[in-house]
Amino acid sequence: MAQRGSYAKGVAKREEILERALDVIATEGYDGASVKRIAEAVGLSQAGLLHYFDSKEELFTEVLRKRDEHDGEQFGLPDGRSGDATAIDVAVIRESFLRVIRHNMEVPGLVELFSRLAVEAANPEHPAHDYFLERGEAVRDGFALTAPPGPMPPDVYARILQAVADGLQLQWLVDPTVDMAGIVDQLLATLQQNPASAS
Amino acid sequence: MAQRGSYAKGVAKREEILERALDVIATEGYDGASVKRIAEAVGLSQAGLLHYFDSKEELFTEVLRKRDEHDGEQFGLPDGRSGDATAIDVAVIRESFLRVIRHNMEVPGLVELFSRLAVEAANPEHPAHDYFLERGEAVRDGFALTAPPGPMPPDVYARILQAVADGLQLQWLVDPTVDMAGIVDQLLATLQQNPASAS
DNA sequence: GTCTATACTCGGATAGAC
DNA sequence: GTCTATCCGAGTATAGAC
Question: In chain B, which among 100-159 make CB contacts under 8 A with chain A?
Fold first, then answer.
C-alpha cells in the first residue's frame, strides 16, 4: 500500500506504474489486461506491483483516474467550479469535449477499460463505484455549463450528453467505423441552437 | 449442440433453458452469472447444460436474443421492415420505446448482462459480436422512423437515441435513482419538435 | 441426454526469503 | 521494496459412465 509511509519514493513509484499502465493499455490495447501484464510492462513482478495497490480493481480504477488527470491537462476541461458560462466558454467547452472524443478514438484500449469498469462499478463494493459517481458528476457539471436556455433542465441536458458519449463508445467498440466526434458535433449543433425557449 | 439432430426435444429444451435463464437473471440479478448458476436454476448440471450450448458466451448471447424476442412481443417494437412512418406511428414507436425503458428499470440483472456483453463483444471473435451489430441496426431502423425532418440525418439521429439509451443504462447501473425513462422522454420532446427544418 | 468427476487454465492473492 | 514460489478459487470444458 503506497499510503503507508507515503515516502516520496512509494508515491513516485505508484505514479510511474500508473503512467506506464496507461501507456501500455493505450498503445497495446486492452485485452483482458491483467495485473501481470502491466507488471511486466513496468518491469516488475506481479507480486511486486501488488505491493503498491490493494487489488487489481484498485489498480485499474487508479489508471482511469490518472487518465482523467491527463485529459484534464491536455484538453483543458472545466473543473465544475465555475458558476456560469459566457458564450465564449460554451464554444471552448464544446471544442474541448470534441477533442477528447477524437483523442479517445486513438486509444480503444482505454475506452474498453473505461466501459468495462463502468459496468463492474455497478457493485457498490467495487473501488470504481465511487470513482464513477464522482466523475459522472464532474463531467455533468461541465456539460451543464453549455446547456441552452429552454424547457430542458441543465442537469437533464448534461445527463444526456454524458449518455451519448458513453453510449457511442459502446457502438464504436463493436464497430470502429462509427464517427463518434461527428455525431456528437451534430447533436450539439441541434441542441444548442434550440429555439424553443418557452418554459 | 442443439443444432445436431435438432429433434424437437433438443430445441424445446434449449428454449426452456433460455426462458429459465432469463427469469433467473431478471429476478435474482446478474452477479457474475455463471453457467453453473443457470444450470442449477434449470435443474441441470453444468455439464448437462453445456450439452446445449457451445460455450458460456454463446449461452448468454442467446439469452439476450431471447430477451429481445420477448420485448418485441410484449412492447410491439417495429421490425425495421416498414418504410415510412405516419404521425401516429411515431407516437406509437415512442411510447413503445419508453415502455421498454421502464421495463428495463425492473430488471437490473438483464441490463447488466447486456452492458457487459456489449463491451466484450468488441472482440470480433465473441459470439455476441454479430448479435450487437445486427441488433444495433434493427434498433436504429426503428428509431430512424421517428426522426423529424431537419438538418440531422435520420441515421445520426438514430445512433444518438441508441447511445442515449445505452449510456443511461451505465449511469443507472451505478446510480439506480437515475430516471432513464423521464430523461429520454424529455429528449424526444425536444428533438422531435425541433423547428429547425432548414437543410 | 444427463450426470459425476476431473482436468486444466487463468489470474489474483499471500508467505516468506533476500 | 521486490522477488520467487505457492496457493487457491473460480469457472469452463471434457471424458466417460449410465
Answer: 108, 112, 115-116, 118-119, 121-122, 129, 132-133, 136, 150-153, 156, 159
Domain boundaries in chain A? 1-53, 65-198
Grid coordinates standing for B48?
Answer: 448437462
A65 DSSP assignment? H
Asked whether residue B147 carries a pLDDT value surpassing 70, the answer given is yes
Which DSSP symbol is given to A148? Answer: P
**Residue B39 Cα to chain centre, angstroms:** 23
A192 CB within 8 Å of a chain B CB: no
**Chain A residues touching B196 at Cβ < 8 A:** 190, 193, 195
pTM over 0.70: yes
Other C-beta atoms closer than 10 Å to the C-beta of A33 total: 22
Residues B91-135 pLDDT 10s = 898 999 999 999 999 999 999 999 999 999 999 999 999 999 999
Q: How far apart are CA A173 and CA A115, in angstroms?
A: 10
Residue-level pLDDT at A97: 95
Does the domain made of A65-198 have the CATH classification 1.20.1260?
no
Q: Which CATH number fits domain B1-53: 2.60.200.20, 3.20.20.140, 1.20.120.140, 1.10.10.60?
A: 1.10.10.60
Kindly determine whether residue A166 and residue B163, on different chains, have CB atoms separated by under 8 Å: yes
Number of Cβ within 10 Å of residue B1's Cβ equals: 13
Under DSSP, the state recorded for B148 is P
